[in-house]
Model the fold of this input.
Amino acid sequence: MKSFGYAVESKTSALGPFHFDRREPGPKDVVVAIDYCGICHSDIHQARDEWGGSIYPMVPGHEIVGHVTAVGKDVTKFKVGDLAGVGVTVETCMACENCKAGEEQYCTKGMVGTYNAKDYAGNVTYGGYSDNVVAPEHYVHTISPKLDLAAVAPLLCAGITTYSPLRHWKVGAGKKVGVVGLGGLGHMGLKFAHSFGAHVVQFTTSENKIEDAKKLGADEVVISKDADAMAKHAGSFDFILDCVSAPHDINAYLGMLRLDGALCLVGLPEQPVATSPFALVTNRRSLSGSMIGGMRETQEMLDYCAEKNIVSDIELIGYDRLEEAYARVVKSDVKYRFVLDGKTLKK
Ligand code: NAP
Ligand code: ZN
Done:
């Protein structure tokens, strides 16, 4: 299928216009014309090959919303014209125990990413900085028309990646929860933790985000460079969600966990994390991680957002500002997710 988007040709090249072919849609596939696509920090990590193994040319983008333009003959969930969303995953084996449990992101055969991956048939996948996407209906989500469509896009990655661990660790009323890093993931983690009824403390390196953090639902905001402010929270948290994209000292946060408290990493800096065993054995603490979420939970999250009127706080930009947006994300100058407007994608 003829397609057009923006790609990087190598880890040092800028994003530029790119014509490419997607695989032809099959009987179970949905074709989605892309109206909006969020910019995730994972797009930058992969475009710049910070995790290794990047496939070029690469069309990034896995926070995709749009409308359905074609459906295969076996598709039952969608018809032409429906709103639809595609996130980080476009293929899994559907036969392993994790897939059967609805945790397709942990497929033992390996989940196929929306871009920078090869599907099981060997086709390279291309992401949402483009005019359309093809995916089996199992990986396509229903979107409520009640919400601002552009602001829904980031829910497909930043939303589910924070919703899933907060649900898994049963965050809610009576729990003290920390969110580290107020970027795309962090601001969604903050909104969800607040919405679930927890007492939420936002940690940030950016003093200019304090007022925003309070408006987004933080009960307290701590500047993580302020050692005295940090010390006041020692041994007090049930759960901390670390959404930071760059290397930082996690021992400072481990030391804030109470008995049986857990620190969950969702941020993916390229460097290994150094931990102190003493920080872990004290209070029987857990250090863990979490990756996006399964298809059933992604739909649950989208439906929850429609019910509670939760969307991402976005800065809607044209394709001419892609490079500027990347530079600002890397500088932590994002409030709080850039979203590309498909109307500005011109051949
Ligand atoms: P982002 O919008 O750039 O936010 C990252 C935030 O981290 C920044 O806004 C900043 O917040 C903080 N930060 C940055 N550099 C820091 C440093 N040196 N020390 C301390 N804090 C720093 O990124 P994102 O899109 O939310 O993604 C965050 C991370 O999650 C990325 O590594 C991404 O690849 C990863 N990710 C993982 C999954 C998953 O499934 N686990 C899914 C999506 C993304 P403050 O200004 O508040 O300090
Ligand atoms: Zn992402």
DSSP finds eleven helices and 17 strands in the chain.
